[in-house]
Amino acid sequence: xxxEEIDHIGMNLFKETQERKKSGxxxxxxxxxxxxxxxxxxxxxxxxxxxxxxxPLKFTQxxxxxxxxxxxxxxxxxxxxxxxxxxxxxxxxGLTNATPFLLKQYSFYVDKDNDTFNSIxxxxxxxxxxxxxxxxxxxxxxxxxxxxxxxxxxxxxxxxKAEKAVHKIVELLDYVIPYEDGIGxxxxxxxxxxxxxxxKNPENIKYVERFLSDTHPVARExxxxxxxxxxxxxxxxxxxxxKNVFILIKD
Length: 251
What we know:
By secondary structure, this protein is mainly alpha-helical. The protein has helices at residues 3-25, 28-42, 65-74, 80-88, 99-109, 115-127, 133-141, 150-159, 166-171, 187-198, 205-208, 217-229; strands at 233-238, 244-249.
């Protein structure tokens, strides 16, 4: 596709979006705040004109000034979508001055379990802040507050190799999140299987070996990946019915 065609499509999408905003889906307050948000960001050297341009990929850990801007506007927008965008843009690796705000919002939004909450989990995950490992452990330890997106916090603890969290992650191997529509069932369990492997400790193979024969394909696949990361050897064979199964090769 030629650049002219892409620009034409982009301009039409921009116009359509602006019309939808004026139709009442965004309040007058939101429209005014949106303009002011871009003005403040552009004073830092950016060139934003509409919300579809906003992304954490547009920023780096050196753009610490954006944290004060996005946190200020987050609390003023009416539209949940605009709140989510403000949160999403804080999800920049190394932008650690955003972590305290995100953790505070996590506590507030966890009971809502909406798009903004999902964005909060994603932003915390992307920042990779090592300074709040204890807080992450508290999050995954509160069984009554665990949601599907909490799986990102579980995986983060694995990425950070937070040894203090291992026993809590192991406990989550038996945790199932109930979803009425069936989507997202076992999200935390699947993440826990992978997270254990990220510690690369062969002693932990015993915790995930049982998932090699799990009824769910994702659990089996994650167990294989995790065990391999811990230095274990896996062999795929056929059982008596001709079905492929995975077994752990023990010396």
